[in-house]
Structure prediction request, 188 residues.
Amino acid sequence: MGNTVLLLLDIQNGIVDRVGNPASYVELVGSTAAAARQHSVKVIHVVTAFRPGYPESSPLSLSTPAIAASGDFLEGSDSVQVHPAVARTPEEPIIIKRRVSAFHGTELDLILRASGNYHIVVAGLITSGAVLSTVRQASDMDYRVTVLRDLCMDRDDEVHRVLMDKVFARKTEVVSGKEWVDSLAGSA
Prediction:
């Protein structure tokens, strides 16, 4: 698993709190991240955050002006902190994104390629947002992608199902968190 990284998208206080049953979800993400660490799989956290004054917010964007108007997701605020249930370790990088994809305008590609990580295992929020944009861009950049079905969530269950079964399944591997963890144990 030396070239594999577990990418956790928007598992941060301000977003986790907006999805149904966050306690069981973050517990599952936390246990999967712990299993990854036990099998020497690197974990990278990606959070959405903006600078004071929201200079990254374009009036042409359909989402960032609403975030700026709300005053949410400012760098350093509690809403952008990795959720404590994930138990981030000090050596695990945090990538700050200001758009939906974890790659757009960030150093994620540089960090992955510099460390020889070409297999990305994706978990996160929201399936139709950060997960979709990141998975599609990673695929276009020739990364091998695995999506953890039960470690991604969307506010719309049908959209989540369609993305997993009809969109992601065509270009990526889609498995449960347990299946992925079991594969780690089998490869040791």
Q: What stands out?
A: The chain has one domain: 4-187. DSSP finds seven helices and six strands in the chain. The chain has a mean pLDDT of 94. The two ends are 9 Å apart (CA to CA).
